[in-house]
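Annex B, item 7. Sequence and structure tokens for protein A, then protein B.
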Amino acid sequence: MQIIGKFQFIVLILIFCLTNQVELYISFIIFAIIHEMGHLLIGILIGKKIEKIRVMPLGVSITFKILVEDYNKKIIKGNINNIKNLLVAIAGPFVNFAIAIILYNLSSLNILSFKYTEIIIYINLLIGFFNLIPIYPLDGG
């Protein structure tokens, strides 16, 4: 497994510090990591192996290994492999939507109320919907 970090973190953190938005950036990164953990959990449960984890300024990216045996299985059992890949892809946005729905319900029932509830709901909806855009590096691609 390979873990890669990016230098742009320093620049982005400086920008957020200068604009006094550090809490927003930290919240965004935390929920982006939770989003990727959804992919990771489902990937591990269905037997995929991690190739690399990339830490980027606006989140984390997990790449799973593609084994030669998987290509042979794909030819024989193509639909099952496609369903597994679909489950891994939708796991991340599902986690974000679940967090947003749970927080919304808890705050509307007055069980949970703190300063950042609306921001956390917004961040999770933003990450979830953004990742469903049908462009390659995103989950929708």
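Protein B:
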Amino acid sequence: MNADHKRFDYLEILRFILAFLTMTWHYYYFGPSVGTIHATPVHGFVIRFFSFSVEIFFIISGFIITASAVNRSPVNFLIGRVARLGPCLLVCATLSLVVGLLLGRWPTPLSYVASILIVPLAFTNGADWSYWSLRLEIIFYAVVFVTMCVANIRRSVLWIALLLTSCDVVSIASVKLFGSDVFGTAMSQYPVERYLSFFAIGMLLYQLMVAKKINVATVGTLLVSVCAGAFRCYEDANRIARLVGDTPVSAFTGGVILAVGIVAFIGFLRGTASPRAARIFAALGSTSYPLYLIHQNMGYLIVGFVDAKLGHGIDARPFVMIGMVVLAGAIALYLEPALARQYRRFLTYSAATASLAWARMPGSKRSYGDAD
């Protein structure tokens, strides 16, 4: 089988596990710690680090998006990304809006519109607190898309990873040397440069493990990316510790967090020979995206509503978690595919229309036969 067409079915299981761990972290650690859920937080050594599931998501994204890009034209890549993000965002943002209206805390009109239009999420907040990570995903997609438009993406993977890692390293160095981020975002909660190394790690693991481009430049860049990522894990763990009043961690702990994430990623980096298992894994992977989008604010509101109605004698969180998984599965298996087909049809038609209009422009070197 061609390396570019390998399937990594077990990564779908990992994506679901990561989304579930993120939900667990929000319901049992972060939410109770900041008062959005009225319960005692679980301060176990492990659960406080479940938040780093998102960083592993970024590594997976760097890997999968690279694999996707090398097999597609820029237009097909863009259509694929929009069709992947758009339908689920439309459904989940609308659910967040409706539940918020019913239970007393709804997204702002701007955040809702930004969510369903996708691109504005790169610049503003979405309908749920969990949408912050989509900002980084969208920016990463844009970098890959622009590269595809001007260069051969197969030959550019290392250069993109090097660029992402360099931005992160420059940011770290500028804060350490001068006390301020050269990008001017050191005081924001989720500055883009703080997470770039994780995407770079995913891209470089693709180069090493799939494309088999094993050389000094790739390995060296990966080592720098891992060091920067480990520092960011250490930094973020302490940021959260300060926020919720937990104990700080050492730099060694930051390295262990990232090492566990990379080992988990590599461990799940394989396919299955069973078509039935592959379908089940794909369903779990598809469920992870809506689960991530709906679980936080909606979950906080529903848990609070149930507590208010039934009192604090019953812990509603396990039932809400089960409900969130079932709802996310229904969105992923029934609503999203139907909407995705409509998105693809509209985007493909729009791209063909734009291509034909470009071909008809005076001075265009393209013929009508080229406008496909």
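Comment on protein B: The mean pLDDT is 90.
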